[in-house]
Amino acid sequence: MTSLLIGAVLVFACLAVFLKDMLKAVLCLLISSIFLAIIFFRLNAPFAGVFEISVVAGLIMVLFIITISIVGPQDTVSEPTVPIAIFLVLFMIFSYLVNDGIVHLLTSEKFLANSKDYKRFGEALWLGRTFDIVGQISVIFAGVFVVLLVAGRRRNGK
Amino acid sequence: MVNNNLTDCWLLMHGAAALLFIGFYCIFARRNMIRLLIGLEIISKGICLLIICGSFPSGILVAQALVITIIVIEVCLMAVGLALVIKAYKQAGSIDIRKFANLKG
Fold it and tell me: pTM for the full model?
């Protein structure tokens, strides 16, 4: 089951890259997000799964679709031919490294230290990652201001 | 639920690595600005999957908090990026990244 789910995520991510129609590409990315959220649920991470579905598969895809509806299909952008073989070789090297050491590093006790102290998700988020919350709020405000500056209408007709 | 055996972790981590390289390929091989943002999105998915399956099951709570932080930052990044895409389209009439190669300041 896990192999089927990760296979579906990879297939739809590839379709999002290679499909020529932008709208279909974004819809494939949405389906890929949903399969990834199912993997999160199966890995006992329901909060991450809910965020993946509601925010990534919902909000971000709406932003993509609004942008595509404004700029149009843009089929005329010519794409260069970059050989996929280079990336396949790099992936095999990286995969070998993952096989060799990174799995043992990530599954060891040192990864995410002090993580066993928390019994509930709220404690881990609010007590353990307080500075992350502050950072998130700052990033949200920064994003809102930048979007207002970039996409807002200028006064005096300029 | 997935059992805590190394096979599932191994499979998911290789899947996450594959997602990373699909995103890298998208960024290197595409010139459409929306495609570049799609590539960033795919890389972000790979990193989230790597964090979640790497911390399964002992540190899953902290890993979820980290993933939520990544998702919030990703939303802001996409909102700003797509606003810039719309602005670039209104300025140049195209979203080909090569047309903006000679920007100066």
Answer: 0.83
